[in-house]
């Protein structure tokens, strides 16, 4: 069981996702299987409800953006496209 599973409810959700992935993607094994299960589990069940944590992350991100020169941000953005 992954370390981010803490409660019996989370464990139940994890098992449901594993079962679904086995049915939908029988060819997925090893790292591919784990990646699918992990991705689906987090998208479906691990939506952050901790508003304080989210606002802290946003605050840190804003500070980083303010520190970074505008020309560098534009260059980074162009690299992503």
What can you see in these coordinates?
This protein has 4 helices and no strands. The model has no long low-confidence stretch (mean pLDDT 75). With 81 residues, it is an all-alpha fold. The longest helix has 17 residues. Helix content is 75%, strand content 0%. Helix 1 crosses helix 2.
Helical region count? 4
Radius of gyration: 18 Å
The secondary-structure element order is HHHH
Bulk shape:
extended
Please summarize the sheet with the most strands.
none
Helix content: over 70%
How far do the termini sit from each other?
A: 37 Å
Tally the beta strands.
0
State which percent range the strand residues make up. Answer: under 5%
Summed up, the domain count is: 2
Describe this structure in a few short sentences.
The protein has 81 residues and is mainly alpha-helical. It contains four helices and no strands. Helix 1 packs across helix 2.
Sequence-ordered SSE layout with sheet pairings:
Blueprint: H1 8-24, H2 30-45, H3 51-67, H4 70-80
Helix pairs in contact: 1-2
């Amino acid at each position: 069981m992954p370390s981010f599973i803490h409660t019996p409810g989370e464990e139940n959700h994890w098992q449901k996702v594993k079962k679904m992935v086995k049915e939908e993607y029988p060819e997925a094994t090893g790292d591919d299987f784990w990646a699918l299960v992990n991705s689906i589990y987090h998208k479906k069940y691990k939506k952050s409800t901790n508003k304080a944590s989210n606002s802290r992350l946003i605050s840190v991100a804003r500070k980083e953006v303010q520190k970074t020169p505008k020309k560098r941000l534009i260059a980074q953005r162009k690299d992503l496209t």
